[in-house]
Amino acid sequence: MREGRLARSKFYNWPDKLFDLCNILFMIGLVIVTLYPFINMFALSFNNANDSIRGGVYLWPRLWTLDNYKYIFNEASIYYATTISALRTIIGTLVSVFCTAMLAYTVSRQNFVLRKFVTVAFIFTMYFSGGLIPGYLLIKELHLINSFWVYIIPGIIGVFNMIVIRSFIEGLPDGILESAKIDGAGEFTTFMRVVLPLTVPALATVSLFVAVGQWNSWFDVFLYNSSRIELSTLQYELMKILQTSNTAATSSTAADQFASGQSGVTSVTPTSIRATMTIIASVPIIMVYPFLQKYFVKGMTVGGVKG
């Protein structure tokens, strides 16, 4: 009889096992599809540029070389541009997350009279903007052109980030905030000492969004600070290097580059430069993400659930 129950158990469990197997195979395929482009960029960045023209470089460099990285880091502007990118990422992330969190806490309070109006006004900006020219004129009137603060002030509030943090705050038990007020804490004290420590998962999630945006941004440099070399960022300098390599590539054919590679002459190609740029720009974010991963997952799941 026991053997019969075991047989029925195995029979009734085979759909679950089949589902688990399909789920595992699907996730493995998803990981491969997700990681392959980055691994391919890694292989191309360390492969000889002239050899890469032949194709066939997928997961591992065929002819190892550091020439692509030497070509980029030989540019003196890369070093101070990296410093500016790091500064704008750190300062911009801290200021934006703090101000966005204060706004999220404000609109999450039921006793705030203009709660709905402020929320709708900010959400409206997600669908409609003033446009490029009015935005440039506004930045000019604020005297932010050729200034480091043009990287910080225009993006100080993120509407989507505000919604994420507000949803997380609304999920907090009301008793915690009420007990703080009973103890005599004002709104700002409650925000600093109670709300911020409890919203770390949401803040870490938003911080990752803002940091990636700040680190990858280059168009604002092109618009507002292109005449100030000392305010250039890493992404903008990499973009200029890529344009230079594209221009140089138009004056020679792939066959000429391959022939020069066979004769021992070192050169780079737009493809190798693009792959190297991808690795250089991605490494800092990849190094930071593992420290925020647990908060990122919790912030995206719990932040949308109201307790």
Automatic annotation (TrEMBL):
Bilayer disposition of the protein: Multi-pass membrane protein
Protein's recorded name: Putative aldouronate transport system permease protein
Pfam families assigned to the protein according to its UniProt record, in alphabetical order: BPD_transp_1 (PF00528)
Family: Belongs to the binding-protein-dependent transport system permease family.
Organism listed in the record: Paenibacillus algorifonticola
This protein's UniProt keywords: Cell membrane, Membrane, Transmembrane, Transmembrane helix, Transport
Annotated ranges, domain ABC transmembrane type-1: 82-292
GO biological process: transmembrane transport
The keyword Transmembrane helix appears for this protein: yes
Cell compartments where the protein resides: Cell membrane
Spans through the membrane: 21-39, 78-105, 117-136, 148-169, 190-212, 273-292
Database matches in PROSITE patterns: ABC_TM1
Matching InterPro entries: MetI-like, MetI-like_sf
UniProt keyword Membrane present: yes
Any single GO CC term annotated in Swiss-Prot or TrEMBL for this entry: plasma membrane
